[in-house]
Design brief:
The protein is about 35% helix and about 20% strand. With about 240 residues, the chain is of the alpha/beta class. Strand 4 and strand 5 form a beta hairpin. It contains 11 helices and 9 strands. The structure holds adenosine-5-diphosphoribose. The site of adenosine-5-diphosphoribose has 24 residues, from helix 2.
Length: about 240
């Protein structure tokens, strides 16, 4: 099965990779819903932490929780799946992940659907944004431009994805002829809708995941196993 997947990938004219938390799980970054790795949300209520309401209610708690996640990401290193994806300059990576492991592996063409933890921004409209050191994450602080609280530069529950980011992802999934779907439950929209869009546009879907997911029924090929083993094999 993975030989067929490798052949399809080698013949692809326009290859896109769509990734989720499972891509970074073997680097030690907890997933969100995957019971086997003690999914992140199982220990925290996302509406309390990753939402504008949660931030308004307790900005200190939210910033402390993100500092904990940022330090964990700083400790993590790209795994063979990140490196295999980054080594292919013919692949556009669309990721739901907010870690910087694909960048650290050297990936150039990257669409970050849910933003990045490697920056903070101000939501007051002043447009302030600054990169942060994941190994030494900032505590709750005010925007130097307008005085509002700065927040992680990620998309929270209830927030819309940046229009330009969504358009780039939609257009790539309409045009690709092979979509590699790696380490995602495909449970969260609108991101997961890109899978059906690629399928409807005629792409072949290859799913790499440790368990069946909401992408399984659309998959032309589903490889169940670890991304760090299967992604290099399929991209070889
Ligand atoms: N290799 C491949 N797949 C793996 C691995 C691994 N080593 N470890 C876990 N997985 C799979 C799990 O089986 C699961 O289906 O990765 C998937 C991770 O799913 P989720 O935890 O739901 O993460 P994700 O799909 O990225 O969530 C989407 O939800 O909470 C929001 O913004 C958050 O971007 C996130 C979005």
């Amino acid at each position: 099965m993975s030989k067929t997947a490798s052949r399809i990938v080698s013949e692809a004219r326009n290859l896109v990779a769509f990734s989720g938390a499972g891509l970074s799980a073997e680097s030690g970054v907890p997933t969100f819903r995957d019971a086997t790795t003690g999914g992140l949300w199982k220990r925290h209520d996302p509406t309390k932490l990753a939402s504008p309401q949660g931030f308004a209610r307790d900005p200190q708690l939210v910033v402390e929780w993100y500092a904990h996640r940022r330090r964990a990401i700083a400790q993590a290193v790209p795994n063979p799946a990140h490196r295999a994806l980054a080594a292919r300059d013919d692949i556009l990576n669309i990721t739901q992940n907010v870690d910087d492991l694909l960048e650290r592996a050297g990936a150039q063409a990257l669409v970050r659907l849910h933003g990045t933890l490697a920056a903070d921004r101000c939501d007051s409209g002043c447009g302030y944004r600054e990169s942060i050191d994941l190994a030494d994450p900032p505590s709750l602080r005010s925007c130097p431009r307008c005085g509002d609280h700065l927040r992680p530069d990620v998309v929270w529950f209830g927030e819309t994805l940046p229009a330009n980011v969504w358009e780039a992802a939609e257009s790539a999934c309409r045009r690709c002829d092979v979509l590699l779907i790696i380490g995602t439950s495909a449970a969260v929209h609108p991101a997961a809708g890109l899978i059906g869009l690629a399928k409807a546009s005629g792409a072949q879907l290859i799913v790499i995941n440790t368990q069946p997911s909401e992408a399984s029924e659309l998959a032309d090929i589903e490889l169940l196993g670890n991304a760090s083993a299967l992604v290099p094999e399929v991209l070889d």
